[in-house]
Design goal:
The protein is α+β, with helices and mostly antiparallel strands. Helix content is about 45%, strand content about 20%. The protein is built from 3 helices and 4 strands, in the order E-E-E-E-H-H-H. A 4-stranded antiparallel β-sheet has the order 1-2-3-4, with helices on one face. About 10% of the residues are buried.
Length: about 110
């Protein structure tokens, strides 16, 4: 995994072609990169992100942000009720309780 300007690249090695290749995984847009060495790969990754940002600027578009901070989760009503009650018992909003629970789960 590689990170640059908030974007995350996933990297694989193609043994037949003897090359590293990757793609940016936290966007709907497709951004790919490749290199024969780690330094070449890192440079290609950063250059691809910079090209994407420049392309968006030239078109007058806002680049897609890796994460907005919002997401929708669908759960069955029984679990929704249990989670909401747990949040109330802890004197937290449902959003705050879920935030704290997810933060604990990922170790932040």
């Amino acid at each position: 995994m590689m990170q640059y300007k908030g974007y995350v690249g996933n990297v694989e090695f193609d043994d037949e072609a003897n090359i590293f290749h990757g793609d940016v995984i936290n966007l709907r847009d497709v951004i790919t990169f490749q290199g024969k060495t780690v330094d070449e790969l890192r440079h290609a990754f950063q250059e691809s992100i910079d090209d994407y940002l420049e392309f968006c600027a030239e078109r007058g578009d806002s680049p897609e942000k890796p994460y907005s901070g919002k997401f929708m989760v669908r759960i069955e009503p029984k679990l929704h009720k249990a989670v909401a009650l747990r949040a109330m018992l802890m004197h937290k909003s449902l959003n705050a309780w879920i935030h704290d629970t997810l933060e604990t789960a990922v170790g932040n």
